Amino acid sequence: MEHTAKVAVIGAGAAGLSAAKALLDEGCDVTVLEKGDQPGGLWVQGNSSGLSPAYDSLHLNTSKGRTEFADFPMPAEWPDYPSAQMIAGYLRDYSDHFGVTERTAFHTEATRVERTDAGWRVEATGPDGPYVLEVDAVVVGNGHNWDPRWPDPAYPGEFTGEQMHAHDHRSAERFVGRRVLVVGMGNSAMDIAVDASYVAASPVLLSARHGVHIVPKYLFGKPSDATGAKLAQLPWRARQKVAETMLKLAVGTPQSYGLPAPAGGLFQNHPTISDTILHRITHGEVVPRPGVERFDGRRVHFTDGRVDEVDVIVWATGYRVTIPFLSSRWLGADPEEMPLYERVFHLDDPTLSFVGLMQSTGAALPVVEAQGKLVAAHLSGRYALPTPAEMTAAVHRARTAAVARWGARKRPMMRIDFDAYVAAVPAEVAAGIERACAGAPVFSPRTLPASTRQEIQT
Fold first, then answer.
1. Which CATH class is domain 6-146+320-455?
2. CB atoms closer than 10 angstroms to residue 436
3. What's the pLDDT tens digit per position in 409-423?
4. Which of 34, 149, 312, 415 has CB atoms 3.0–4.6 Å from 12's, for a disulfide?
């Protein structure tokens, strides 16, 4: 007798929602655990989870046509770059439309996940207290842009003004009449510098040790990522050369605006997407600075010898990958280096899978949609994985290629090329179905106790 796979999905952001939708499509018994009070994850400003970094001015930095779920297109009348509020509503509508919301336990935090003889034991704390779920498989979709990374080691000296991480930025109100320094060159750093530049007491300082390519949201009258999509069939080095030439013709180089030179090629380091930062720099409202050297009270010493008085520093220094409910038995010494087949399946036990634990050259939503369908094909028993040796070899090849492209210090295990990946995953699903038809072993859920939810005895 066949049994329906019971699956716990941890997180109801874009990754968890797309995984749950795909699993429901395959007939799996799905429970989604979400710490916050609504679906949407990091896009929901004010989410009760406290994990969202969304701010008032946040918009997509990839165009809607390259960001939307294939199974749930964004409204045609929407702008090319919708706001965070629109995306939060879009994800909520997606969850409602596909029946994920009714399968979600809100205000519920997974606290521990461990393997058992019968499957997986998921300990959680919900509105009524702690309880346990016993399931056949676990899908981790808790995101990796919620645990702020602060400078380490700290800079010499002591800064006596206010320091905050970009994660805590919501509006420009806290910068009114103050002298502001933003450290970082990513999308959040640029957005915050622009926001602050309209209300700060003096030009906002923008500091970075290394530069990035700055890509406007439109090139030649079209969304810039749509322009890049036309080159998707070329090898990445050829695409990079063409795209860098187009970018230089359109806006020049970062150095021409007083910014540091990019540390690598356009497709080797994630570019910053901004129409506004160059405008504010050319108008003198944002002023570039090199890296910070040390602090002396409110005086910030930069590596070029200049010194500025600052009231508040915003550290836009990224996030750590944190999966607090899994032990090092599964995560290893560093979650960023965890080897996953197709960036999805744990090599030691593919009934533990991950959706969204990647760093893409493009939008995230089409990637997690593809990953969710891959997980669901596996847990439905339609798809057979390659042999363990083949999966290990594939992970090794992917990491070697990533190091060659992005370098060994920039999360090579997590890196994917957007266009190549979203094309490769459906092909992998088809290959796995062929393996299954040829007799390769497929997943089959074990019989679990009639009640899969148990209260923890305290």
1. alpha beta
2. 19
3. 889 999 999 999 999
4. 34
